[in-house]
Amino acid sequence: MRTHNTQPVNEPPRRGSLWTRLRSYCFVVPVVYLYTAVLGAVALICSLFDPTGRIQHRIARLWASGDLKAVGIGVRVHGRAQLRPTKPVVYAANHLSAIDIPVLYSEIPGQFRILAKKQLFRYPFLGWYLKRSGQIPIVLGDAHASMRSLNRACDALRKGMPLVVFPEGGRSETGQLQEFMAGAFYVAIRAQMPIVPVAIVGSYELLPINSFHVLPGVVDLNFGEPISTKGLRLRDAAQLSDRVREEIAKLYRQLSVVGCPSPVTNRAAPVIDGRSDDKAQRQGRETDNRQLTTDN
User: Fold this and answer.
1) Percent of the chain whose pLDDT exceeds 70
2) CA angle, corner 228, sides to 148 and 292, nearest 5?
3) N or C, where is the chain less crowded by C-beta within 10 Å?
4) Residue 184: per-residue pLDDT
5) Phi, psi angles (nearest 5°) of residue 14
6) Model confidence band, residue 147 (pLDDT cutoffs 50, 70, 90)
7) Which residues are CB-neighbours of 277 under 8 A, at least 6 positions away?
8) Can you list the alpha helix ranges (DSSP code H) found in the chain?
9) Overall CATH class of domain 18-295
10) CB 115, CB 183: distance < 8 Å
């Protein structure tokens, strides 16, 4: 007689408890939303007399540290010597969770600009802050709009403003490292500025995508050595992308087995061969690659 295994394949481990769910839904989420709205409004007012964005960036750092404290998340930084607040660089990080942005804001010194999906600019308060503070929107799947944004990012780098980019184009649904888009590497090569690989470890276990159930714990930030783009041409973008991706995966693995007060103790290192991309990401990558080929 044929038997069937009713156990789901690759079933994700249970996260937290009833208490942590009640804590998230009844306290953490309302507090974070309220805090974001208040500081977003303050930043919007400050933008009227803050053309450099310095005050707005300080407010963003205050927002980040407040959100992390409300949730109960600590950040451990590794490779802090690689942080270069006075030099224009491109910080390229993996993207696992909504926690990633406040984590980066709380630890990267000095001002920087973020290359972010245009959808984020539509949210009340958050979107207003992104627009008024000079963050740079990327339109996935629209080559001409994306190129305008990338050229704007190049100008910001050349004027001495560091950039933070998520080359995957969005948060990972599986916790695995996804394929990289070409845009960030187009910017770095065209501006001839170095790329600092950044591995974010632990945020996926605390708050995965499409969830409001956030857990307290520790997120590790591992900064790698800068990767030079001197002498590279646009045709080298794919090779540079592969190198940065390998470095981020290596930085992740360095910390993926380190014990910490995380709800999931057996962290899975990112799989370099993982191909979990949504339709928008695939379209964005195709248009990026076509545009790079045309420009080169």
Assistant:
1) 80
2) 35
3) N
4) 87
5) -65, 140
6) confident
7) 169, 178, 179, 285
8) 18-23, 29-46, 54-71, 100-107, 126-132, 143-158, 183-191, 203-206, 237-255, 279-295
9) alpha beta
10) yes
